[in-house]
Amino acid sequence: MARKLLIAVVLLALGGAAVFWFLTSPGTVAARALPPHSPNLDNGRTLFIAGGCASCHAASKDARTLLGGGVALRSPFGTFYAPNISPHATDGIGRWSEADFVTAMSKGTSPDGRHYYPAFPYPSYQRMTVADLRDLFAYLQTLPPVAGKARGHDLAFPFTIRRGLGLWKLSYLDGKPFQPDPAQSPQWNRGAYLVNGPSHCAECHSPRDALGGLVTAQRFAGGPNPEGEGWIPNITQKALAKWSPKDFEVLLETGELPKGDTVSGGMREVVRNTSQLSSEDRAAMAAYLKSLPPVEGPKPPQRAPSG
Amino acid sequence: MKRLILAAAVLTFGVAVVAAQSALVRERAELMFDQGEIIYVMLNKMARGEIPYDQAKVDEAFAKLKEIAPKLAALYVETAKGQSPDADYYASDKVWQNKADFDARLAKLVKDINENAPKATSLDGMKQARTAIVQNCNDCHDVYRLKKN
Predict the structure, then answer these.
(1) What are the strands, taking DSSP E only, across A34-94?
(2) Rounded CA separation A21/A165 (Å)
(3) B residues 108-147 near A, CB within 8 Å?
(4) Is B142 close to A230, i.e. CB distance below 8 A?
(5) Predicted TM-score (pTM) of this structure
(6) Are A103 and A167 in the same domain?
């Protein structure tokens, strides 16, 4: 009787493992699925700026095209270190194919079939069109190769089990690129694409649940800074009803707030990127942000003055 | 009876200490706000041409900056961390983790205000002075100031 029970348990465990393995298999984009395409390097550069790649992948804030990685991103799950994405053949992505890059950005899967941690914001990047991803890849390949791999992430068990991210992706990745809204203007749609796709604003400006996924019902409504201290503000019209589209534009160009103060911390780094975009792109983002319906975000904690 | 009086005295003393610390937190939030009203709002609007240039107001503004900035260093004591209920921002714990750097920045702010205030005798002079001073504000906030909500 005990023997039969043992066999049943073992079979169940094996069955469970097989289901887990199947459910967590990494999604990929096959090379043959990509139609012929001539890369547009100007567009690639725009996407590089909008995407904020240098902010995580360039070790120096000033040498923004040296993408050797190593920048630390703190989170409740541990500290991530962004990898080398320069076109170095062994330490970077120099040997990647277009399909490898499209797969990484839209499915969060590495060329050797491992899941990336969503500290790399592919849930936003998945909104980007395949053509744009290919332009971005072509642009990245023109940048200087940087030697040296970045250090590995500093995570605690069980977050060290990458395969588990396959389950996470089933909930938090929908695989849908951006769908323009025909009822809205081209400018609004451009803004919606930039904000939700390459500029990945919601990744900081939304609260996250216990599994580190964005709380969709409170998208853009702010939340605790996932990197540690302070609060990231609500940028829906619940908080910013008094802002004009011009106020958003000025912020994205100079970091100045309507009352004259300037943004600090992580947002200052964002402005280092958005200040380099065209004024049309900033105006588009402003038009979209101004249209965000009011959403109540989580309540920030009060820290009473202590003695 | 003596014990009751002693307990009351200790309690009153304790409350007074806490109140004094909260007063420090409030005061530095107010002083920072006052500086902001000058350098981020009024002088900024003049620089952008949104309000007309007024030498008398500019002189008064720089006099106030010279008066406020030196008061700040004494308010950032280890025992007075926390948020002022009326302010949007508060000081990060990094202030006390890197006290030497923080104090140096406040000292530089005072120095830059004193050195640049004499330049503000025209619109262009005021703009130059403002740019030199406001760099201190922005760079320090980047590291040491946190948003409350």
Answers:
(1) 72-75, 78-81
(2) 11
(3) 137-138, 141-142, 145-147
(4) no
(5) 0.87
(6) yes
Asked if the Cβ–Cβ distance from A303 to B25 is below 8 Å, we say no
Characterize A36-65 residue by residue with b for buried, 16 or more Cβ atoms within 10 angstroms of its Cβ, and e for exposed. eeebbeebbbbbbbbbbbbbbbbbeeeebb
- Give the residue from A177, A192, A224 where a domain finishes: A177
Q: What CATH number did the domain enclosing B116 receive? A: 1.20.120.10
Digit-coded pLDDT (tens) for B24-52? 999 999 999 999 999 999 999 999 898 99
* Domain membership flag for residue A21: no
Q: Is the CB of B45 less than 8 angstroms away from the CB of A262?
A: no
Q: What is the ipTM of this complex?
A: 0.72
| Chain A residues near residue B105 by CB distance under 8 angstroms | none
DSSP secondary structure code for residue B38 in this structure = I
User: A262 and B41 in contact by Cβ < 8 A?
Assistant: no
Domain of A290? 180-298
Please list every residue in chain B whose beta carbon sits closer than 8 Å to the beta carbon of residue A259.
Answer: 40-41
pLDDT greater than 90 at residue A89: yes
A120 and A210 assigned to the same domain:
no
Q: Give the domain CATH number at A225.
A: 1.10.760
pLDDT tens digit string along A52-65? 999 999 999 889 99
Nearest-angstrom CA–CA distance, A223 and B147:
11
Q: Sort out which chain A residues have CB atoms less than 8 A from B147's CB and list them.
A: 230-233, 265
